[in-house]
Amino acid sequence: MNILNRIVSDVQLMFRRPVREQYGALCYRLRKKDGPAVEVLLITSRDTGRWVIPKGWPMDGKSACAAAAREAWEEAGVKGAVSPQAAGSYRYRKGLPHGLKVDCRVRVFPLAVDDLCKDFPEKDERRAEWVTCAEAAERVQEPGLKALLLAFERQVLAGQASAAKNGAGSA
C-alpha cells in the first residue's frame, strides 16, 4: 500500500461515525390451522414504504426490550409479551434527513402478540401485514434480517415440537 492510500484510509477511519444502536420488535403469533406456522407482523417504513419490523432508538429510562415493545405499539399498535433476550441482530444503513446515512445495528427482541390496538400514534403513516417468516424474508431488504427471520421460525417451531413432545409424554 502506498503512502497516499494509507493516508486516505486513515482519514476515512477518523471520520467514520460509530455504529448506532437501535432496538426492534419481532412481533409474532403462532398459526395452528393447516399445521403449525409462525407469522410475523411487517410494517412499511414511513419514508420509502419498504417492509421492515418496528424499531427505534434507545429511550431514556427504558431497557432495550422495553424500548422495542414501545416502538411496536407506536408503529404497529401491538401489545404483548416481549422477551428480555434478543433473538439476534442485524445491520443496515439508515437514511437521515438531509441525505446523511449512518450505520445501525438493530437488536431484535421477540414479542408474542396478545392484542392489536386500532388507535396508535402512527396508524395513518404505515401499512401492516401478517406474513409467514419465509414471506417476510422475501419482503425485507436487509440480509441480516432475512436470516434472523428464518432462524427465528426454526427456533419457535422446534420449541413447539419439544413442548408438544414433553406434554404428550406426561399424559
Automatic annotation (TrEMBL):
SUPFAM superfamilies, alphabetized: Nudix (SSF55811)
Source superkingdom: Bacteria
Gene3D superfamilies for this protein: Nucleoside Triphosphate Pyrophosphohydrolase
Nudix hydrolase domain mapped to chain residues: 18-153
Pfam families: NUDIX
Source organism per UniProt: Shinella fusca
GO CC, alphabetical: cytoplasm
One MF annotation (Gene Ontology) recorded for this entry: pyrophosphatase activity
Designated name of the protein: 8-oxo-dGTP pyrophosphatase MutT (NUDIX family)
Cofactor: Mg(2+)
Key words, A-Z: Hydrolase, Magnesium, Metal-binding
InterPro entries with a match to the protein in the record: DDP-like_NUDIX, NUDIX_hydrolase-like_dom_sf, NUDIX_hydrolase_dom
